[in-house]
Design a protein that fits this description.
The protein has 194 residues and is mainly α. Helices cover 77% and strands 2% of the residues. Strands 1-2 form a two-stranded antiparallel sheet.
Length: 194
C-alpha cells in the first residue's frame, strides 16, 4: 500500500509543479512586463485555470497525511514557516486574479498577483530545501527549531525553483499566445533588412 501512496504523492507533486508552476511563472513574468495589455492578457491566461491547478497541492497534502501520517506530522513542523508563507501568497494570488478579472484595469491587483507569485515560488523552494536538511527526530516527533533548517542551500533552491517556474510560464505563453505578446516573448523575429 505504501507504493500506491508514494506513487500518488509523486503524481500530485509532478502535476502541481507542471500546472501551477507555469501560472506562477506567468505571474513572475508580469513583474518585468511593461505593457498593460500584455499583463492583462497574461493574467487572463491564468484566471481560467489557476484554481484547478492549486487542487493538486491540496491533493498532495491530503495524500501525504492519509498515506504517511507519521511522516506528515514530522515533516510539516520542519517546514512550517515556508508553508505558511506559501499559503498566504497563494491566497493573495487567488484574490488578486479574481479582482483583476472583475474590474480591469486593476494595476494594484496585478502587482499583488505578480509579487505573490514570486513569493510563493521562493517559499516553495525554501520549503523543499528545508525538507532536504537533516531532520532532528526524538520519539517519532520533530525535535528541532522552526528556524533550524534555513541557510544558503534554501536560498539557492528557492532561486532555482523560481527560475524553473518562470521558464515554465514563458514556455506556456509562447505555446498558447499569438500576436504582439508572443512577439514580445521572442517567438517570432523578423529577418534583418538586406
Amino acid at each position: 500500500m505504501a507504493i500506491v501512496w508514494s506513487g500518488l504523492i509523486l503524481l500530485c507533486l509532478l502535476m502541481y509543479v507542471l500546472l501551477d508552476g507555469y501560472d506562477l511563472g506567468i505571474g513572475i513574468g508580469m513583474l518585468i512586463e511593461r505593457d498593460t495589455a500584455h499583463r492583462h492578457e497574461m493574467i487572463e491566461r491564468v484566471a481560467v485555470v489557476w484554481d484547478g491547478n492549486e487542487t493538486w497541492l491540496v491533493l498532495l497534502a491530503v495524500s501525504l497525511w492519509s498515506g504517511f501520517p507519521l511522516a506528515f506530522g514530522t515533516l510539516l513542523p520542519h517546514a512550517y514557516l515556508a508553508v505558511v508563507v506559501v499559503l498566504f501568497a497563494l491566497i493573495v494570488r487567488g484574490v488578486a486574479v479574481e479582482m483583476v478579472s472583475q474590474a480591469p484595469p486593476a494595476l494594484a491587483w496585478e502587482r499583488a498577483f505578480a509579487l505573490a507569485s514570486l513569493v510563493a515560488a521562493l517559499a516553495q523552494g525554501a520549503a523543499i530545501a528545508t525538507l532536504l536538511h537533516e531532520l532532528p527526530v526524538v520519539q517519532d516527533g520533530f525535535a528541532g527549531s522552526a528556524w533550524g533548517g534555513y541557510g544558503w542551500f534554501n536560498l539557492l533552491t528557492a532561486f532555482t525553483i523560481t527560475c524553473l517556474y518562470a521558464t515554465l510560464g514563458y514556455a506556456r505563453l509562447k505555446a498558447t499566445t499569438s500576436g504582439r505578446l508572443r512577439a514580445g516573448l521572442g517567438a517570432t523575429r523578423s529577418a534583418p533588412p538586406e
